[in-house]
Write a structure and sequence with these properties.
408 residues, binds magnesium ion, alpha/beta, binds aspartic acid, eight-stranded mixed sheet, 11 helices, binds adenosine-5'-diphosphate, globular
Length: 408
């Protein structure tokens, strides 16, 4: 019997009616002959409300306690889901991350999954139950409760699909699939029928909030077919699948905006071996996620400027660390800009097409948008722009690559 993992996001379980609707979908899959595992997010805006509540009590809450608080949201929704399924006459059982042996590392608020105890889940599936697992949470070897980072329920779902060897992982959300860009910002955005793991991984890590990027890493590594679709309709959504030859025909698959970015620049860094290693080892030790790194050398090679981008959430801590290092390593000054955004274009077709960067830069320049920094990889071109230009830049790039039109 094949296993299906279905994940319902916050808006898909926002009230009792929606919980019943999601429950019916799970039951339908079971009646179709599958073993069904559900991953549920906290209801509606619960997680946002808990974050706001914490901020009222303590502007800089201990991360361990933040995890303790946020995991309660999913505990509410999983139990209600089990009740809804029971009310419809079927058997279901809910589990927290800890109960199901979802073991993570100890980096609170952005923990990574280490292992999952699939045995427990199989036993209940074999007993004909729908198994409901709390999204976005885990437990450390020492028993501390952790979370996987905002949006992390997608990762719970795909990781479960991977360990259970599921035939499919369905992600039910409030849009009917993955779009060429966020339809809330660019109404002309179009739904894609399929996207490769590599493209989706880039789109997700560069700001396409529809999927948690770690989930795509799991999907790719374990070859889990992922279907992103609407919880409100039966329409086909977007399949996230391995790359196929035809896919390279589309040069740019999508564009993204990452708003809450900041840059930290270390000015006058001694240009000698080991300095960059020291700086970034210290930054990493504090679990600060560094995005792009830029280094320029000047003064006949004696000095360098090293800049990096990071999230706004981490920038204060990053800047404080860099100030400390400036004293230790002899760096002249540290400059922070908290008002930047990153726009990116993504597509595996870029590997085999030329002139893509020129077209992107030209579109931004025609729109009078200044590019502060450029970074590229095989299938991505990203530009750092002023925060206030972010949405405009996204619209401009979306139009420049004709993403509002159906591909040939
Ligand atoms: P859920 O609570 O179901 O996990 P999310 O809010 O995390 O839902 O993700 C869905 C939202 O992601 C959509 O409402 C949409 O505004 C946003 N989004 C951003 N980029 C994209 C994209 N490229 N395609 C589809 N949705 C996107
Ligand atoms: N409830 C969590 C959040 O809002 C996890 C998730 O929904 O994926 O971030
Ligand atoms: Mg989400």
């Amino acid at each position: 019997m094949s296993i299906i993992v279905q994940k319902f996001g916050g808006t898909s379980v926002a009230d009792a009616g929606k919980i019943h609707r999601a429950a019916r979908r799970a039951i339908r899959a079971k009646l179709d002959g599958h073993q069904v595992v559900l991953t549920i997010s906290a209801m509606g805006k619960t997680t946002d409300q808990l974050v706001a509540l914490a901020a009222e009590v303590n502007p800089d809450p201990p991360k361990r306690e933040m995890d303790m608080l946020l995991t309660t949201g999913e505990q509410v929704s999983i139990s209600l889901m089990a009740m809804a399924i029971a009310a419809a006459g079927h058997e279901a059982i809910s589990f927290t991350g800890g109960q199901i042996g979802m073991v993570t590392d100890a980096s609170h608020t952005k923990a990574r999954i280490r292992s999952i105890d699939a045995q427990r889940i199989h036993e209940h599936l074999d007993a004909d139950r729908i198994v409901i697992v709390a999204g976005f949470q885990g437990i450390t070897e020492e028993g501390a409760v952790t979370t996987l980072g905002r949006g992390g329920s997608d990762t719970t779902a795909v990781a479960l699909a991977a360990v259970l060897n599921a035939a499919l992982c369905e992600i039910y959300t409030d849009v009917d699939g993955v779009y060429t860009t966020d339809p809330r910002i660019v109404p002309q955005a179009r739904k894609m029928n399929q996207v490769s793991y590599d493209e989706m991984l880039e789109l997700a890590s560069l700001g396409a909030g529809v999927m948690h990027s770690r989930s795509i890493e799991f999907g790719k590594k374990y070859n889990v077919p992922i279907h992103v679709r609407s919880s409100l309709t039966d329409a086909e959504g977007t399949m996230i699948v391995p790359e196929t030859t035809g896919m390279e025909g589309i040069v740019v698959r999508g564009v993204t905006l990452k708003r809450d970015m900041a840059t930290v620049a270390l000015i006058g860094v001694p240009n000698k071996p080991g300095v960059a290693a020291t700086i970034f080892a210290r930054v990493a030790r504090h679990n600060i996620v560094v995005d792009d790194i830029i280094q320029n050398i000047y003064e006949h090679g004696h000095e360098a400027n090293i800049g990096f981008t990071t999230s706004k959430a981490d920038v204060r801590e990053a800047a404080a660390l860099c100030e400390e290092m400036a004293r230790d390593v002899g760096i002249r000054s540290v400059e922070v800009d908290e008002n930047v955004a990153k726009v990116s274009i993504v597509g595996i077709g870029m590997k085999s097409h030329t002139g893509v960067a020129a077209k992107a830069f030209n579109a931004l320049s025609t729109a009078q948008i200044n590019i502060q920094n450029i970074s590229t990889s095989e299938i991505v071109i990203s530009c750092i722009v002023d925060q206030k230009d972010g949405e405009h830049a996204l619209q401009v790039l979306h139009a420049a690559f004709d993403l509002d039109k159906a591909p040939d």
